[in-house]
Automatic annotation (TrEMBL):
Organism, scientific name: Paenibacillus curdlanolyticus YK9
GO molecular function: ATP binding; ATP hydrolysis activity; DNA binding; nuclease activity; zinc ion binding
Similarity field: Belongs to the ABC transporter superfamily. UvrA family.
Domain ABC transporter: 4-440, 448-751
Matching CDD domains: ABC_UvrA_I (cd03270)
InterPro entries: AAA+_ATPase, ABC_transporter-like_ATP-bd, ABC_transporter-like_CS, P-loop_NTPase, UvrA_DNA-bd
The protein, known as: UvrABC system protein A
PANTHER family: UVRABC SYSTEM PROTEIN A (PTHR43152:SF3)
Pfam families found in the cross-reference section: ABC_tran, UvrA_DNA-bind
Record localization: Cytoplasm
Length: 751
């Protein structure tokens, strides 16, 4: 290899998925951004080729002995990749982790904060474990460090306007004439015809909280000693103090409506022992600091003037500053990670890497601008540049022009999607891209048009005085029969307003989100849309055989892979590996089934068709309608048999949209539908949304994309800023009005 090539990752003859012998030189220690329409092959280059090869090389570092236990990870389909460094993928997969994983634990900031309290807190408590809610020494023993406890919803448990005989106790075990009801009534301690609201405090306490005691009662003519205890006491012991998850589904369903979750009364949600909570710095304890927004916390930490703690303070402020820089200053350290959005999750992961000391790593980002308002994109850019300046190679798949601008090198993939893509259209600088004449280049130069002829609403849906999370008494009307875009900077309260408040009040609304579709690993676009049923029938009648043969979970499926076409092998300490099935070679069906043809094609050949090819092949009316809907949402390039698990979030969202296109009079809610969409595809998305509205539906979209905002009938702008500095409606009106509103950040960016 020549000296000069050392400065490049050299890829030759890549053929994964739709790639057509792609060869590339990617400059090392620079930012390279991959652009192109969805389905053109960006991920096939970056994830399926470069990242996959890096993982394979990493596995080769294991000794021969260990490798003998590992299945052979197939080499990506490419002639060669030279000069690759370790790849780290920073994606939008949500951070799971349950109640014990918080922003603080995942960014490694919480351990440093604990260290700070153990050194500088007063009174002195001991070492750092005392401040960890994941450690038996530090956790609140009442709630085991969860911070919340289950309780009974008294308003649902009792009807105070009734007597015992009228069924005042609403809990499931106490129906009139039931065993538990009879026991209470037969104690003789209560006036069973008196309304509960007329009970004295003592009577009510005995009924609800009476301690367990033996009482002699008559049952079936016999006197027996029976244990009686307060209704609430008994329900608590029977259900709340035990792990509900171990009970039958029926029991769980029956008791769930009566159970509420609230902060633990002992630690008041702080999760820590009293000793830990009494320890303070500048009159704040560790729970106070963990529940502060990062933007405020960093100021509090900076004020700590204690020479012993100085190095810890420095390290803490550095990490907190990273969170501020990336636009997450509105989050708190105690925020549970499974409540973060995809974009927020990716940015949190990014911060983790910035604080690390790895150099010469290839970082790979998948649309890091997701969830960021145009105002905050520059912060993301600065972080990408910081990673590069530390000596790393940064590869980014991105559609946002403001991010693309900062690339040292751009690779534009195209010209279209699927089989009509997979080639490199342009390589070079940003300025060069603008003049390249490619779809991406041309769309970058297009001016924004503000919608003028906005639709008149048919009515309105009201939200009154909403106060959840950061919402500050928000009252707002959402017009029906039009396209409404809810916008505002990250953390301003858009999702809280729409996904939490609005959806809980309008349960008939249909949410079209990016979460994975499909119930099993065998699901694919054909099974999801129902096309597969018609295809099976067609094969069956053409060959005069049973249609069951053509199902993935039938006798007709390949026995080795059970119709999956691939075999998964679990590895103890690596992610599970997927290998093509050796028996059917990925065709999923037995030889004898593959011999049956429909118009000359086998079932495997039909499943390998793209939506576009299938549209030419099929004449069945229902099938054509469903295929056309998929084509309309821009999914022409996916194949009928492609596992749904290989679809991106944006593609999942659009396949859901496709199955809704024939409905009328519904309310649709979409969260950032432009995710994964190239600028040239946004027009298509707008056309679909307009089609839904024209058919009499109401469409509500949460978006930052200026092309979408400018085409709304109605804009609701949240703000003014994120977190406690947000939570208000800054503007309601049309696109041509918002650009005149000084205090609307969105308005400024539209201008
Ligand atoms: P992009 O990242 O530009 O949106 P992709 O690289 O994901 O595009 O996809 C390129 C083409 O390869 C598309 O036609 C897509 O449907 C197809 N493809 C991607 N992943 C798989 C897979 N695991 N199996 C089969 N086809 C795939
Ligand atoms: P946006 O959708 O505009 O980005 P969000 O509605 O997600 O904003 O967030 C608004 C505020 O509410 C932020 O301060 C955020 O941290 C907070 N928040 C959102 N979801 C939760 C949650 N599940 N628990 C606690 N706070 C939350
Ligand atoms: Zn507690
Ligand atoms: Zn097989």
């Amino acid at each position: 290899m020549s000296e000069a090539n050392q400065e490049y990752i050299v890829l030759s003859g890549a053929r994964e998925n739709n790639l057509k012998n792609v060869s590339l030189r990617i400059p090392k220690r620079q930012i390279t951004i991959f652009t192109g329409v969805s389905g053109s092959g960006k991920s096939s280059i970056v994830f399926d080729t470069i990242a996959a090869e890096s993982t394979r090389l990493l596995n080769e570092n294991f000794s021969m002995f260990v490798r003998n236990f590992l299945p052979k990870v197939p080499q990506p389909d490419t002639d060669a990749i030279e000069n690759l460094s370790m790849a780290v993928i920073v994606d939008q997969k949500r951070l799971g982790g349950g109640s014990h994983s918080t922003m603080g634990t995942i960014t490694d900031i919480s351990p440093i904060l604990r260290l700070l309290f153990s050194r500088a807190g007063e009174p002195y408590v001991g070492q750092a474990n005392m401040f960890s809610f994941n450690d038996p020494q530090g956790m609140c023993l009442e709630c085991s460090g969860i911070g919340r406890r289950l309780g009974i919803d008294m308003s649902k448990a009792l009807d105070m306007s009734k007597s015992l005989n009228e069924g005042a106790i609403l809990l499931p075990d106490y129906k009139v004439d039931s065993m538990d009801w009879s026991i209470i009534v037969q104690t003789g301690s209560f006036d069973t015809d008196k309304k509960l609201s007329d009970y004295s405090a003592e009577e009510l306490d005995l009924l609800l909280h009476g301690k367990a005691r033996k009482v002699e009662m008559q049952f079936g003519g016999k006197a027996i000693n029976i244990t009686v205890e307060g209704v609430i006491e008994k329900f608590t012991n029977k259900y709340i103090k035990r792990d509900l998850k171990t009970m039958s589904e029926r029991t769980q369903k029956a008791v769930a409506p009566y159970i509420t979750e609230g902060p633990c009364s002992s630690c008041r949600g702080a999760r820590l022992s009293q000793a830990a909570l009494n320890c303070k710095i500048n009159s704040l304890n560790i729970a106070d600091m963990s529940s502060m927004e990062v933007g405020q916390l960093i100021r509090v930490i900076r004020e700590i003037d204690n020479p012993v703690a100085a190095p810890i303070v420095k390290s803490l402020t550095e990490r907190l500053q990273h969170l501020v820089d990336i636009g997450l200053d509105y989050l708190t350290l105690d925020r549970e990670t499974d409540t973060l959005s995809g974009g927020e999750s990716q940015r949190v992961k990014m911060v983790k890497h910035l604080s690390g000391s790895l150099v010469d790593v290839t970082y790979i980002f998948d649309e890091p601008s997701v969830g960021l308002h145009p105002r905050d994109v520059h912060r993301l850019n600065e972080l990408l540049q910081k990673l590069r300046d530390k000596g790393n190679t940064v590869l980014v798949v991105e559609h946002d022009p403001d991010v693309i601008k900062i690339a040292d090198h751009i690779v534009d993939v195209g010209p279209h999607a699927g089989s009509r893509g997979g080639t490199i259209m342009y390589e070079g600088s940003f300025e060069g891209l603008l003049e390249s004449g490619t779809l991406t280049g041309n769309h970058m130069k297009r001016p924004l048009h503000l919608k003028q002829d906005c639709r008149q609403p048919s009515g309105k849906l009201s939200i009154q005085n909403a106060t959840l999370h950061n919402l500050n008494q928000v009252s707002v009307d959402i017009p029906t029969g039009v396209l409404t875009v809810v916008t505002g900077v990250a953390g301003s309260g858009k999702s809280t307003l729409i996904n939490d408040v609005f959806l809980s009040q309008h349960s008939d609304a249909i949410v079209i989100d990016q979460s994975a579709v499909g119930v099993s690993t065998r699901s694919n676009p054909a099974t999801y849309t129902g096309i597969m049923d018609d295809v099976r029938k067609a094969f069956a009648s053409a060959n005069k055989v049973n249609q069951g043969l053509f199902s993935f979970n039938s006798k007709g499926a390949c026995e080795n892979c059970q119709g999956l076409g691939v075999v998964y092998t679990d590895l103890a300490f690596l992610e599970s590996v997927k290998l093509p099935c050796e028996v059917c070679g990925g065709k999923r069906f037995k030889e004898e089934v593959l011999a049956y043809k429909l118009d000359g094609k086998s079932i495997a050949e039909v499943l390998a068709m793209t939506v576009e090819q299938a549209l030419e092949f099929f004449q069945i009316k229902e099938v054509v309608r469903k295929l056309q809907a998929m084509s309309d949402v821009g999914l022409n390039y996916i194949t009928l048999g492609q596992p749904l698990s290989t679809l991106s979030g944006g593609e999942c969202q659009r396949i859901k949209l496709a199955s809704e296109l024939h409905k009328k009079g519904s309310i649709y809610v979409m969260d950032e539908p432009t995710t994964g969409l190239h600028m040239s595809d946004i027009g298509l998305l707008m056309a679909i949304m307009n089609r839904l509205v024209d058919a009499g539906n109401t469409v509500i979209v949460i978006e930052h994309n200026l092309d979408v905002i400018s085409q709304a009938d109605w804009i609701i702008d949240m703000g003014p800023d994120g977190g406690s500095k947000g939570g208000q409606v800054v503007f309601e009106g049309t696109p041509s009005q918002i650009i005149h509103v000084e205090h609307s950040i969105t308005g400024r960016y539209l201008n």
